[in-house]
Fold:
Amino acid sequence: MEQNTTLQVEFTWRKWNAYISNPSDPIYIVNYQCIKSPHLTIKSVNSDETIGTGTLHPISINAKFQVHGRNGTLKALKRWKTSYTHLSYAYSDSSDPVTMTWTSESGFKTWDFICLDDQQMPVAKFSANWWTLKKVGKIEFLGPKATSTAVREEIVVTGLTLLYCMLLRMNSLLSFFGAIIARPGPIKDDGQEDSVEQGVAIKDCSR
Structure:
């Protein structure tokens, strides 16, 4: 029988960070930086070890992430839709990464980011809540690797990075022009992205 797990994501305005819990015990803490990169840093609550980071860009619609020191890219597949891909080592059964795909569905209350494996089967869903100021949402893991720590940490890092990448795109004129000149499509190499503004961090918090 397939297992699934769910993590809760709650935001703390006073400290400008979020806690990811299972279900009520905090496992990870997410620190946000608006100007300084990396813009997201996910750490273990118990050991203070850095699990991963996420870095956004002022123009490019792609985003960078790192999981336990391994660099990766969330690369846009479409200009105007939430459709992204990244290479996964956690879901691979060999030394070579497999290609994962992120899609989204939105409703009145939630914005769902769905991660599909290399067979286009859903393996995780990050449901972000439009209307709450504290309970940001939840991350559900599906399939035979749902209880894997490596899978959980990769999805937490890439899912949160994607969420904030899309929030930036919705609120930034630079990102709008970045989408116009972007070269969306399948990822060819780990870390590849558009040539526009590579390695440049966000300079402001445009809204």
Notes: Residues 84 and 163 are 11 Å apart (CA to CA). The mean pLDDT is 80. The chain has two helices and twelve strands. Helices lie at 149-171, 173-181.
